[in-house]
Amino acid sequence: MFSAPGVKGFVIAGLIGRMPMSMLGIGIILLIEALTDSFAMAGAVAATVNVSYAVAAPLTGRLVDRFGQARVIVPLTLTQGAALTALMLCAHLRAPSWVLFAAGVVTGASSVSLGSLVRARWSHLLAGSARLHAAFSFESVADEIVFVAGPALVTALATMVNPYAGLIVALACLVGGTLAFAAQRGTEPPVRPYDRHSGTPITIPGVVLLSCVFLAMGAVFGSLDLITVAFAEEHGAKAAAGLLLAAIACGSLVSGLWYGARQWKVSLRRRFVRALGVFALGLTPIILIGDVRVMAPALFLAGLAISPTIITGYTLIERMVPANLLTEGMAWLSTAIGFGVALGAWAGGRLTDAFGASNAYGFSFACALLAVIIGVGGSAWLRTPVPQQQS
Fold first, then answer.
1. Which branch of life, at top level (predicted)?
2. Which range marks the domain in which residue 351 is found?
3. Do the domain assignments include residue 390?
């Protein structure tokens, strides 16, 4: 998989550039809360960043498909770096709230879905090859590494060094990693002729279905993170919250390695539906557990179906979407997850305050069931041609 020239370069740069994906939200919350003593303000600014990213991601993907990766992501990255710097300065200077929200909008809207761009490069290099499945599996594992290491790193820096330190490191990874990725021109997918009549991937029924499923899954992720922190605090083990969240990501990481190492004869559609079923089944125990020590292995099991579901979803997009719209097609999944995470965090917080963390887990389970219902009900839209594989 790594034998092609230039592959290692864009993989390493893409991993570094993706680190802020898991660092910005918690870093912004920790900084603004430390300066304003208001979790409400901190959460609102962080949510503004997430929502503006979710809205802008498909447009960014379309621009990349039309003009190429480097021509689009370099100015966007510089803009995001400037906006994040402005956000930190405005927070330090106690600027009015609207200024923080404005900086948050620009920070989110100029974000680059680097995971989609990395997967687009793999699709270009390994199109029709059996190794593409392994490549997508590897990228899912890389995402989990980011989500295990990023929050722990930014939290340690912000609480033990300086409230700004976590975001400064995230800024360095963002600018350095993304610009290094853009410099890897040898592996960049070529710009295909633009067809004004080609439409948009969201008009493809299968893409609509996958976006709805990923929206529900995003709600699971957003609510699960918040409720798990509250669960640990309720049981007098707030310090264990990081371990509990890491258990989910570790479960997904392990399953991603296993899933990518296998050669599958079952169709993508059936794999996706089955993974969704296991995803919902794996969340069942957490609504019945009231002990932190038991919750950690339960969350590990709950995470086992995440990577197979996401890997298969991106592979389905690669099969269903025309090559000249591939980046935009993948960006729709990122948008769906982004909106889902924002919705899940909001609903999870409200339900936790009203009914307690243990009962609020029922919302996460209900969203997982909704994902299964949508995926199974519309699975006929996920039928894809079987490509001729190359060595």
1. Bacteria
2. 201-384
3. no
Domain count, the chain: 2
**DSSP states of 178-215:** HHHHHT-GGGSPPPPPP-TTS--GGGSHHHHHHHHHHH
DSSP single-letter state for residue 266: S
By the 8 A CB rule, do 71 and 51 touch?
A: no
Residue type, 151: P
Check whether residue 253 and residue 351 sit in a common domain: yes
Distance CA(365)–CA(68), nearest Å, equals 40
The reported pLDDT for the residue numbered 17 is: 92
Q: 68 — alpha (psi -120 to 50), left (phi > 0) or beta?
A: left
Could you give the CA distance from residue 116 to residue 124 in angstroms, rounded to a whole number? Answer: 12
In angstroms, what CA-CA distances link 149 with 24, 132, 179, 385?
A: 13, 26, 21, 38
**What's the pLDDT at 89?**
94
Cα distances (Å, whole numbers) of residue 379 to 7, 321, 328, 387: 34, 16, 22, 19
pLDDT less than 50: residues of the chain: 386-391
Q: Is residue 225 part of a domain?
A: yes
Give the pLDDT confidence score for residue 139 in this predicted structure: 84
The confidence score (pLDDT) of residue 388 equals: 45
Same domain, 156 and 251: no
Quick one: 235 and 371 in the same domain?
yes
pTM: 0.79
**What pLDDT digit, counting tens, does each position of 240-292 carry?**
776 787 788 888 888 888 887 777 788 888 889 999 999 999 899 888 888 88
